Task: structure prediction
Amino acid sequence: MKRSSVLFRLLGSMAIIVFAITCASAPHRDVQFVGPDFQVEIERYQNMLDSNLTYLERNSEQFGIDKLDQFQMLDRKAKADIILVWASVLDYMAHLDLIRYTHNDFYTNITTDFNFDSFINYYWAFLVQNSRAVHFIHIVDRNEALQTILNEGYPEYGLEANTYSQFKTHFLNVKQAAEFAALQIIYRDQRPDINPYYSRIAMLEGYTTSLGIDYGVRLTLKNAQTIIEDQSFAWWFPIQKNFAEWVGHVRVFREGDNLISSQNIEDIQSQLQPGDVLFQRREWYMTNAGIPGYWTHAAFYVGDSLGRAQYFDSDSVRSWVQAEGVESGSFEELLEKTYPAAYANNMLQDDSLQNQTVIEAIGRGVVFQSLPASLSCDGLGVVRPRLSIADKAESIYHAFQYYGRGYDFNFDFLTDSSLVCSELIYKSLEPGNEFGGVPFKTTFVAGRVMTPVNLMVKQFDQEHDSIGLDFVLFYDGIEYESVSVPRDEAAFRDSWRRLGFYQSIPSDKLLMDGD
Result:
């Protein structure tokens, strides 16, 4: 690729930061759950949605939206860009839905026990969601070809056909106008004399009204409460029906509890071998927003010294180690001699589950962690490089060299001084010289070379026979049952197609609701 797209130049840096924060926020031992600051998140989503809209407007000729009532075909690059914008918009809309759901109880007693803080989160999320949705529709509908493109199915983003039509039906609807009017009345009746949200809400209301969303609907306070209490007016997510009904049974944000249990971890440990790659999924993390794709974190299982000594007890490993200058041929001696600090931190404990057997890049840098600490997640996929025993040893040798380096918030694979989670995997297994390795693909974002974790799983699925990876296990989180259960290889290979939000909804609750 000779150049990155204009989209990536304008949006890529922000997307990279969001992606980097998601990997960096992977939980580790002694880190306590802290609930989200919803107002910070709403503002972040608003800014990211605005960046998408700004990109479209600044590149209107590229997308055939510089004039009304056009039909302009897009080239391959422009089509890829508009699809990425569309997927990103839907992802932020979904997270705004979650915030609205989390604060939907403000109306239970408007006159006697009104929770203004909860209301303002709901109303603010509603205004951002609706104003940006209608603005997006106004832009897209200038070019009829874009409507056709966005109505196609894109499984890599979890999008079924006709999603855009349903998006329009929902947001260009008198129900939305009625809810807007109802929320305005409640806000004006309940807002405090000293209102820190005045300017922000006034600006958003003006933006929303200027787009024609209000439709002239006017209501009394009593009627406003009735409308807000009507579930048909609340929440929308374009690829899942009955969302509000289902999510009402979910303990949202779970406060640090993970679907992968301690028993799961014991079972998983018994199946792992040094050199395995761990793909992880954590639900309900607000930082998942803006990253189309299910898998968001990766780690590398390197085992402990005792297990490696047994596993790598082979003539081929001894020969390779001797070629590296260690006469005994001991792989453990090579690691300790070459990377003493890393080796000391890859400690051996009496309790095997507490051994620091996983190396990964998180917010505090490239570290070793115990399996329970690393697997504080909800979904897990494990693949095994199809390598010789000597090449597996060499991949671990490569990983050890990165211990202690910082986390790469710039998300640039071309630098080695700091790394992001997928970069550690990529570079530990990168083929070279006589090392077979695994040829993971890279892509360009904002001029930076990177490999999203979800792309790794996609490559495993689509290039299964040639990529050199074998399936080991897949634990799939089921939110409504509060468990993570084993699935087969076919389910894992299909998992990259999931959208990165609310993926634990049972299959009978999927897809789609046009209201």
Notes: Confidence is low (pLDDT under 50) at residues 1-19, 28-35, 237-252, 502-515. DSSP finds 22 helices and eleven strands in the chain.
